[in-house]
Amino acid sequence: MSEHTDIVQVEHRDQVAIVTMNYPERRNAFSLKMRLALLEVFHQLLHEDTQSRAIVLTGAGEHFCAGGDLSEMTQVSPSLLDMRERISIGVRLFRMLFTGDKPIVAAVEGSCMGAGVSLAAACDLAIGSTAAKLSCAFVKVGLLPDTGVLWTLPQKVGAGKARELMLSGASFDGAEAGRIGLFNQVVAPGQALEAAIAQAARLAQLPPVTLALLKASLVQGGNSIEAAWRREVDLNPLTRQTQDHQEAVTAFLEKRKPTFSGN
């Protein structure tokens, strides 16, 4: 079953939803229209869709996302208030990806520049091609890094490396992205999407409630040791009460694979 819009496509493969940025003529640039479409699609998948338990984000054609649409930047500059609203759309999308209940896996091929890096870093996991070309290129066009990457990149690659990448805007390939931890898995060119779908399918087999609480804990419990302790004490009693926890224990004792219901 597929649902189509002109700039974002959503396909369901069993319990995995595949979100494809569909603007290949501009290497899936992060235009205003793309931001709004992704915001709408992810809201539906995270808050309304009951079929999917994991999500893959990818780009149509040979590229993931080439960053901001420079053709929009040549137009008459909007007012400061309008610009704040445009930037806030990217922030809302980042928050949705980073804090949403369902695990999200990025599948990166080809160009992954600027906001493309932001999107990949906002996903829980990223799988990329050795031939992918990445850059935190914001500084080269006189802009600050956006769409949450000021937070996510240091979390993924460490503060020192993130500072180097954002200050220099230097390009690096998929193999380097794997070495520094931006990519969780590096694959041959053309293999990122299928590898990401396979990873998402594995995540979709895990207890949905526990995954949602785990994602929230990684966001809210990682700022201090006290916050981490508090999340553990507050939330583990809840997971112990779920039917999925009981199913996991029973399946282990019965030496069979558990089937999780999300309850």
Automatic annotation (TrEMBL):
GO terms for molecular function: isomerase activity. It comes from the Bacteria. Gene3D superfamilies: 2-enoyl-CoA Hydratase, Chain A, domain 1, Lyase 2-enoyl-coa Hydratase, Chain A, domain 2. Keywords: Isomerase. The keyword Oxidoreductase does not apply. InterPro entries: ClpP/crotonase-like_dom_sf, Enoyl-CoA_hydra/iso, Enoyl-CoA_hydra_C. The keyword Isomerase applies. PANTHER family: ENOYL-COA HYDRATASE, IP11341P-RELATED. Belongs to the enoyl-CoA hydratase/isomerase family. This is Enoyl-CoA hydratase/isomerase family protein.
